[in-house]
Amino acid sequence: MGLITELSSASDVSAGLPAAWERACTGSGVPLPPTSTNYFDAVRNSTSSFIGGDGQALVKVNANKIQQYVDELDASKFDKYVKHVSSWSRSLPLVFDNQAQNLNLIAILDLLQIGSGFRHELHEAVNRGASDTINFGCMSMHISQTPLDARGLQALTLGEISRNFGIPLLGKERPMSEGNTAVMISEASALRPLAEIILGILQDTGRRLEQSGFASLADFIIKTCAAKPTAANLVQKLVTAFPSLRDAASIGGQPVYLFKKAQLMAYDICQKFGKEDPMFNFPDIGDMTLFADNVVPAVVQHHSLIDPCPSIRAKIADGKELTLQETTAMRAASIVAAQLVVDCANSPSSGFKVGSVSVNQATLDNFWWYEGKESELRSTQRLVCKNTVYF
Questions:
Q1: What is the per-residue pLDDT across 314-344, written as a single tens digit (0 to 9) for each?
Q2: In terms of domain of life, where is this protein from (predicted)?
Q3: Helix (H, G, I), strand (E, B), or coil: what is residue 52?
């Protein structure tokens, strides 16, 4: 038994999985950084290179706005929001048999932090957003004692995903033919692709775990962290092992690494278990980058720290779907802007007095994400991208 080494070595594992999932794994063909590379540095360097080069035609980072933003940043509000997110995140009202079971569900929750592009359809159909839909589905599977180990994930069906997550597979009914007829047929729901993507993520993850001798996702994480208890190591192993976490894009032949869900998973594990278990008390947790999703870049744009080109700005304002290149540029630019804010806030010459919470990209992400829930910003249009397994 050994850690999964490379996606290409197990390409046949994906055979027979939902086509919607395969299409949404847009980063599966992007070459990974060398194994000796720190993956947090890879994200910083690749996003900076992209936005400083061809990407600036799509989204510019307003470096001249950084100092003003830091000057106006409320340290007490920052502390309050970050602490709220850290204590709220993954605090599920569930009973677990042991730590491994709890760890497994949290990992699956972060593995499934997707569906933001279907936000409006979800609200219309089930009166829940993407995050609440994923939480609801994962809790439902746990309560119903659905096996969530490697074999259980592979055995899941589309019907079970529909029932547990409350995602309808069928849409409106219409007559089978024109004229008077009692025969009605149902069209596929607009949310069916989301259900198929969720199913593909879980089935593929289960297959890859079993192929490499791991009993569950928790088993993979525990053995990875036992060998080397750092966040960077865990993120690298997760990204290498599972295409649903290979959050990267090749734009003009240039790789851009984002790795949102893998970083979020490592962060949540540290927040939840780090104080109790030294194996999860990652010393490099502050080295992470922004968990760039659909919300945070919109908040960064609201603060005028990034400036999308007119066509992207118009699409966002109209709630239209962005292309892979456009979403990559928005997410990458938000990471670059975040690093500038972090550098400025921690500079002795900035005048900013850091509160009880350190200002790094991970805590800044928590702050901006929760700020996006404020009434003033909640109506701000977010990024829309349906064909992705990454956010």
A1: 999 999 999 999 999 999 999 999 999 999 9
A2: Eukaryota
A3: helix
Of 110, 85, 81, nearest to 271 by C-alpha is: 85
Domain spans in the chain, listed from the N-terminal domain onward: 7-378
Nearest-angstrom CA–CA distance, 244 and 365? 21
Contact 90, 290 (CB under 8 A): no
Each residue of 187-210: pLDDT tens digit? Answer: 789 999 999 999 999 999 999 999
Q: What is the pTM of this model?
A: 0.92
Residue 172 main-chain phi, psi, to 5 deg: -70, 150
At 87 the three-state DSSP class reads helix
Helix-strand-coil percent breakdown of the chain, rounded to 5? 60, 5, 35
Contact 58, 308 (CB under 8 A): yes
The two three-digit tokens of residue 221, written as one number: 């994480």
Write out the H or E segment, with its range, that includes residue 211.
helix 192-211
Torsion region of 323: left, alpha or beta (phi above 0 gives left; psi -120 to 50 gives alpha): beta
Q: Find the helix or strand (DSSP H, E) in which 205 lies.
A: helix 192-211
